């Protein structure tokens, strides 16, 4: 059986459906639609800070490798 | 991680003509994409190049990933001789883009931009259509997820518009 690949070209007539089938969580897009650009930027910065903390924790546990 | 507020304040203070593009523009447009740097498309006129140098020099810009002993002078002449620069600075990674693939130079990109208020500052940001055009032109596999998101966002906005008018 041919394995499914991430880059399979999904194409329906609806880009929202395409995104869902591709694996995008579109609920995040609807949520961000309600925010102002500054709020979107601040949300992004918070997530980025969290990701950086996770990276630091990973490095601390497993070394710089 | 780039200090976006500090960076934009600095550009505004020095009257830089710029458009926020790339991942941060996608974020401002409502994408859930995560990016650690900021890309701007800048006007390449002489005065703007001088102002960019004046605004960013205090943050010690250096070519990202270049050997530490590589001579690099951040001045208007260097900017004039080059086009796109990927820089590390004290306030994070900043990409200065002279030409956006699929869109063009600053004046072309203005046609694909809209003004948004960010931290109380009025900034030009590449539109969803402009972002899709540039992402498709580069054709990088890593841009495929964000392109899908942007196309979905465009459709969400269309449906919102229909609902409002209907």
Key descriptive features of the protein:
heterodimer; A: 65 residues; mainly alpha; 3 helices; 65% helix; B: 166 residues; alpha+beta; seven-stranded mixed sheet; two-stranded antiparallel ribbon; 7 helices; globular
Oligomeric state of the chains in view: heterodimer
Number of beta strands of chain B: 9
Q: Distance N terminus to C terminus of chain A?
A: 37 Å
Molecular shape of chain B:
globular
Q: List the total number of helices of chain A.
A: 3
Short description:
The complex is a heterodimer of chains A (65) and B (166). Chain A has 65 residues and is mainly alpha-helical.
Spell out the blueprint of helices and strands.
The complex is a heterodimer of chains A (65) and B (166).
Chain A: H1 15-22, H2 26-33, H3 37-62
Chain B: H1 4-13, E1 18-21, H2 22-28, E2 38-42, H3 46-56, E3 62-63, H4 76-81, E4 85-89, E5 92-97, E6 99-100, E7 104-105, H5 106-110, E8 113-118, E9 121-126, H6 128-138, H7 144-165
Parallel strand pairs in B: 1-9, 2-5
Antiparallel strand pairs in B: 1-2, 3-4, 4-5, 6-7, 8-9
Helix pairs in contact in B: 1-3, 6-7
How would you describe this structure to a colleague?
The complex is a heterodimer of chains A (65) and B (166). Chain A has helices at residues 15-22, 26-33, 37-62. Chain A is mainly alpha-helical and 65 residues long. The longest helix of chain A has 26 residues, at 37-62. Helix content of chain A is 65%, strand content 0%. Mean pLDDT of chain A is 85; it is low at 1-6. By secondary structure, chain B is an alpha+beta fold. Chain B has seven helices and nine strands, in the order αβαβαβαββββαββαα. Chain B has helices at 4-13, 22-28, 46-56, 76-81, 106-110, 128-138, 144-165, and strands at 18-21, 38-42, 62-63, 85-89, 92-97, 99-100, 104-105, 113-118, 121-126. Chain B has a seven-stranded mixed beta sheet with strand order 3-4-5-2-1-9-8. Chain B has a two-stranded antiparallel sheet with strand order 6-7. In chain B, a hairpin with a 2-residue loop joins β8 (113-118) and β9 (121-126). The longest helix of chain B is centred in the C-terminal third of the chain and has 22 residues, at 144-165. The mean pLDDT of chain B is 95. The chains are: A mainly alpha (65), B alpha+beta (166).
């Amino acid at each position: 059986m041919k394995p499914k690949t991430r880059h399979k070209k999904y194409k329906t007539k609806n880009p929202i459906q395409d995104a869902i089938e591709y694996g995008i969580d579109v609920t995040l897009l609807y949520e961000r639609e309600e925010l102002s650009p500054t709020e979107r930027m601040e949300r992004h910065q918070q997530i980025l800070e969290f990701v950086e903390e996770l990276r630091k924790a990973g490095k601390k546990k497993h070394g710089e490798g | 991680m780039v200090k976006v507020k500090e960076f934009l304040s600095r550009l505004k203070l020095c009257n830089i003509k710029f458009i926020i593009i790339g991942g941060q523009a996608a974020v401002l447009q409502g994408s859930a994409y995560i990016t650690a740097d900021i890309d701007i498309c800048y006007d390449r006129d002489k005065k703007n190049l001088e102002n960019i140098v004046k605004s960013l020099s205090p943050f010690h810009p250096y070519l990202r990933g270049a050997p530490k002993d590589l001579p690099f002078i951040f001045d208007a002449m260097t900017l004039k001789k080059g086009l796109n620069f990927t820089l590390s600075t004290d306030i994070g990674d900043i990409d200065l883009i002279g030409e956006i693939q699929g869109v063009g130079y600053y004046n072309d990109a203005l046609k694909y931009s809209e003004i948004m208020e960010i931290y109380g500052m009025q900034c030009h940001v590449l539109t969803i259509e402009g972002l899709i055009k540039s992402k498709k032109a580069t054709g990088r596999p890593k841009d495929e997820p964000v392109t899908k998101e942007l196309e979905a966002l465009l459709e969400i906005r269309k449906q919102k518009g229909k609902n409002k008018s209907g």
